[in-house]
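User: I'm preparing a small set of examples for a lab meeting where we compare how different chains pack in three dimensions. I only have the primary sequence for this one, and I'd like the structure in token form so I can line it up with the others. Please keep the answer compact; I'll paste it straight into my notes.
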Amino acid sequence: MDPTASACHVAAIPYPGRGHINPMFNFCYLLASMRDDVLITFVLTQEWLGFIGSDPKPPNLRFSSIPNVIPSELARAADFPGFWEAVMTKMEDPCERLLDRLKPPVTAIVADTFLFWAVGLGNRRNIQVASLWPMSVSEFYHLDNLIVQAQNSPTDMSEQRAEHSDLKENKQIFGRVKEAFSWIRKAQFLLLTSIYELEAQVIDAVKAKLSFPIYSLGPLIPYFKLRHSSIPIPSYQSNNSGCLEWLDSQRLSSVLYISLGSFLSVSSAQMDEIAVGLQQSGVRFLWVVRGEAARIKDICGEMGMVVAWCDQLRVLSHDSVGGFWSHCGWNSVVEGVFSGLPFLTFPILMDQHCNGKLIVEDWKIGWRVRRELGKEVLVKRDEIACLVKKFMDLESNEGNEMRRRARELQEICQQAITKGESSYTNLEAFARDIHNAATVEAG
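Assistant: Understood. Below is the structure token output for the 443-residue chain.
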């Protein structure tokens, strides 16, 4: 059918950062693929539209842009509080003006939870709003409790608050987080990027707190690219630098994949220790390094491959990859679980500590690389070499038990997206909800 004739028109508004745009785009791709009678307009800044504007997508998923009213993505890390505040204060007006121009009229908004102003925007226009939470549900639950605790006992420094000490140190950011959580309760839906079976207990606890429909839709990762290998990598990324071909030449489960994130970084001193430790371990590795790949490659020698970027999910799904050293960003965690891999956890800030705890303590599919909450502790090369060698030992009983559990979680994750199972059924239910509401409104 002609998408522009659809009675149900969704405006999707992600927070303008890669870790938020990716799951929102994957959600929109899945929704558009499931229902051709739903039109989706994916709203980006002009800068981000330039990054991803040529990405392949269903015909009922289109891009639209607002002016660059916020600092550039390329300088975001230099002043994150300033970037955050600009997102909270400068994006609402151009988004509202865009809604005035979109045809057919928008009947639903799906917005990143942190864009709390989108809930008010929808409520003023009598448009249903779904808040998309881009992190683990455990993090949602902890933050919600932290906000209540901070209001009731502002001097209490519990362990829960220690986990989020970096957030508490910036009162401006924490204030906006509290504002976002207060607006969640004024939305009509909460969409979760997790898989129900992975966080069932905490998802049930969140459902008990909130009185509107909550749908767990994960994994919101681009697994459809694996099913359709003709789909190219995103246009804002570089090519794979030959890493897939290199992996083809490696032994089964012999390669440690390392990625410490696309935004936050560890110190150069720690990077050097990791590089030398990897070299000393004798383990093959593929390491994605932003900004200083050439320098790190010189230190590492010939045991591994160092690249500036790769198609992470395809790499993690490769038979030669046997482990994932991760900063524990939620998208990376879900991709690693989907691929059935054990983890070395190396959280840096924010929700990464909570995700690392999930991996090590709850799911028991990983080991910690020694770090302390709230500050970076330099992990020395000898410790790294010993840990990596032990972690990648395929004859270890402890390691094999961890890999067995990782495969169990992989089966759970991949089962959830099949027809009739939890995530697929939840996406169907949400699509039906917004479509029925739009049809009633049009009638």
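A couple of notes for your slides: The chain has 20 helices and 13 strands. The first helix runs from residue 18 to 34.

User: Perfect, thanks.
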